[in-house]
């Protein structure tokens, strides 16, 4: 059971990246399978045109994993967003992720293929949805080095129709109102087409306590709603504690490290329960 629980050290701590178009590789699944559930809370802030958008994201996730060969999950996010001194609680865009193993080596997925689909369930006029269907196919890989497991993925995200995102790059001192400029989600910012990557490593630092660190980035591939080749990157440390036979606790943060950024900060915690 501990091997199965330790799968969520990566699965849980890296699905926080799904807010900005990333999903995780899952190097820990060994030979077991089961239904996976998670609840996660994330605090964040995004400043646009000198206005701060403070938000709290509540993610509810349900998934199923089968013997390190196949994984699928549905993530339903609810956002409490403060704008112009008022706070509203609304449904954001729902994500469905499916991943399957292509090549296994030493009991882990050496190479895998996945697809993350974002459904337009959030209201773009209230800044919690992007108003379009998005797809992100990706290739993931893993490598075990002693007690350390390294992992990564390369993906391509694209929208099914042209849209206008929130302002990723804006002119300081713009005289127009914030409402005239913003259209789309301020908590899940991404461009119409972009390349994505993720690299990370995880290890057990003491009994039942795991540390995970990854870097994730996106490169814009269109000029329609952002500048071509704009690059965004975050560093994402996390700690996961296995508390019971079927329960884990994770604490995480996301830190932007490039001049261009899609949020000012994010941090949070969550729990996983395995049936």
Brief synopsis:
This protein is mainly beta and 275 residues long. Helices cover 6% and strands 58% of the residues. Strands 1-2-3-5-6-7-8-9-10-11-12-13 form a 12-stranded antiparallel β-barrel.
Topology:
Layout: H1 2-14, E1 33-48, E2 51-66, E3 70-83, E4 86-91, E5 94-105, E6 108-119, E7 134-145, E8 148-159, H2 178-181, E9 193-206, E10 209-220, E11 231-244, E12 247-256, E13 265-274
Antiparallel strand pairs: 1-2, 1-13, 2-3, 3-4, 3-5, 5-6, 6-7, 7-8, 8-9, 9-10, 10-11, 11-12, 12-13
Fold and architecture overview:
This protein has 275 residues and is mainly beta. Helix content is 6%, strand content 58%. It is built from two helices and 13 strands. The chain has helices spanning 2-14, 178-181; strands spanning 33-48, 51-66, 70-83, 86-91, 94-105, 108-119, 134-145, 148-159, 193-206, 209-220, 231-244, 247-256, 265-274. A twelve-stranded antiparallel barrel has the order 1-2-3-5-6-7-8-9-10-11-12-13. Strand 1 and strand 2 (51-66) form a beta hairpin. The longest helix is centred in the first third of the chain and has 13 residues, at 2-14. It is globular.
